[in-house]
Design goal:
single chain, Rossmann fold, two-stranded antiparallel ribbon, about 30% helix, binds 1-O-pyrophosphono-5-O-phosphono-alpha-D-ribofuranose, binds guanine, PRTase-like, Hypoxanthine/guanine phosphoribosyltransferase
Length: about 190
């Protein structure tokens, strides 16, 4: 299951940021090379989880964009990207994002009241981004049918579950200076 993703995670280099071992991976960073086989495998798996019964795919810049694009092309569903830049369009919604290493504003455009949306992203770590985004989408009148994040590192997904949001993750990982350890793979017994 998810063999291409697992293999790529095992090969992911680590750099130390402060004292934090930071993994570098095509899905979370777009470097060194994002292969179509990997996007294809992930998009197929997302369809297995969420089907295609939604109006719109919603994702977050920057690294949600290739995932949403691959899924959009497979499902024929439109996508809206939550941006870090303000456009000032009518109906734009602003929210504050806080992750482990950044704070800033996010801007939602293009999501209409009553739409059913699938939310996808590359990584969940502290959960700060989804903690801000999911209630904001609901306040806009969107119906969130599913949330799928490729890589889970840390306790963000558990925190979202405590808030009443089920976040499906494809792999749970741990990271130290020696590399990435895969703790859990979606659909596999451990
Ligand atoms: O669970 P959290 O702690 O909120 O972290 C998750 C967020 O962090 C990453 O984005 P980042 O803000 O680094 O932006 P990028 O995609 O532009 O690198 C990732 O794409 C998520 O959106
Ligand atoms: N690419 C990347 N994104 C992260 N988000 C939280 N931790 C990490 C990390 O180590 N690498």
């Amino acid at each position: 299951m998810l063999e291409v993703l697992q293999e790529s995670l095992r090969k992911a280099p680590i750099v130390i940021r402060g004292e934090y071992p930071y993994f570098i991976h095509p899905i979370s960073d777009g470097v060194p090379s994002l292969e179509p086989e990997l996007l294809d495998e992930i998009a197929d798996h997302m369809i297995d989880i969420a089907g295609t019964d939604y109006d719109r795919i919603v994702s977050i810049e920057a690294m949600g964009i290739p995932l949403a694009t691959a899924l959009s092309m497979k499902t024929g569903k439109p996508m809206s990207i939550v941006r870090k830049r303000q456009y000032g369009l009518k109906g734009e919604v602003v929210l504050s994002q806080s992750t482990g290493y950044s704070k800033g504003e996010l801007y939602i455009n293009g999501v209409s009241k009553g739409e059913t949306v699938l939310v996808v992203d590359d990584v969940i770590s502290t959960g700060g981004t989804l903690k801000a985004l999911l209630p904001a989408l609901e306040n806009m009148g969107a119906n969130i049918c599913n949330v799928i994040v490729v890589i889970s590192r840390g306790d963000g997904a558990a925190k979202m579950s405590d808030m009443g949001y089920n976040v499906n993750t494809l792999v749970k990982i741990d990271v130290d200076m020696n590399g990435v350890s895969i703790l859990e793979v979606a659909g596999e017994q451990q």
